[in-house]
Amino acid sequence: MAEVRKSAKQTEARRRARANAAAFRARQDQLEQLAADYFVAADSLEDIDDAVEKEIAAVRALAEQQRTVVRRTAETVMQKMLALGITRAEVAERLGITIRDVKKPSTRTGGGRVSLAAAVPIDEEAGGEASFLGQHESEPAFTS
Q1: Under a CB-based contact definition with an 8 Å cutoff, are residues 134 and 123 in contact?
Q2: 95: domain range?
Q3: How high is the pLDDT of residue 117?
Q4: In terms of Cα–Cα distance, which of 109, 122, 42, 36 is closest to 79?
Q5: What are the φ and ψ backbone dihedral angles of 103, each rounded to 5 degrees?
Q6: Residue 134, CA distances (Å) to 1, 55, 65, 77 in order
Q7: What does pLDDT average to in each consecutive run of 10 residues of the chain (144 residues)?
C-alpha cells in the first residue's frame, strides 16, 4: 500500500511539473514573439530614418539650386545698377548690404565696363525706356 501512495504522489508531481513547464513554454513563446515584434519595429524605424535622410538631401539639393538662381539674379541686378554708373558704395547703400557684397563691375564686353545697352533692357511698350527695374514689380524684394 505504501507503494500505491508513492506512485500516486509521483503521478501528481509529474502532472504539476508538466503544467508548470507548459506555462513556462507558453510564456517563453510569448516573450520570443514580442522580441521579434520589437526587432521588426526597430528595423522599420531605421528604414524610415534612411528614407527621411534621402528626402532631406534631395530638398537641400533643390534649395541650393534655387539659391544659386536667386544669387545670380541678385548679382545681375547689382551689375545693372553698376552699369548705370553708380558706385559700389551707392549700390550697397541702396540695397542695404555691405560694399564687399557688391562685386566689381563685370567685364563681359571685352575689357571695360558692361555697356549700358547690354545691361539695361529697353521696353518698347514704355516708349523705349529702360525697364529692368519694373520687371519684378509684382515679386517681393530680394533680401539676404
Answers
A1: yes
A2: 2-130
A3: 46
A4: 109
A5: -70, 155
A6: 117, 37, 25, 12
A7: 71 93 96 97 95 97 97 95 94 94 75 46 48 44 46
The per-residue DSSP string of the chain comes to -HHHHHHHHHHHHHHHHHHHHHHHHHHHHHHHHHHHHHHHHHHHHHHHHHHHHHHHHHHHHHHHHHHHHHHHHHHHHHHHHHHTT--HHHHHHHHT--GGGSPPPP-TTSSSSPPHHHHS-EEGGGTSEE-TTTTTTTSPPP--
Range 118-140 burial, b when 16+ CB lie within 10 A, else e = ebbeeeeeeeeebebeeeeeeee
Contact status, residue 65 vs residue 75, Cβ threshold 8 Å = no
Looking at the domain assignment, is residue 112 inside a domain?
yes
Q: Are 103 and 80 in contact (CB under 8 A)?
A: no
Say if pTM beats, i.e. exceeds, 0.70: no
Residue 136 forms part of a structural domain: no
Chain position carrying cell 551707392:
90
Total structural domains within the chain: 1
- Looking at the domain assignment, is residue 111 inside a domain? yes
Q: Is residue 99 part of a domain?
A: yes
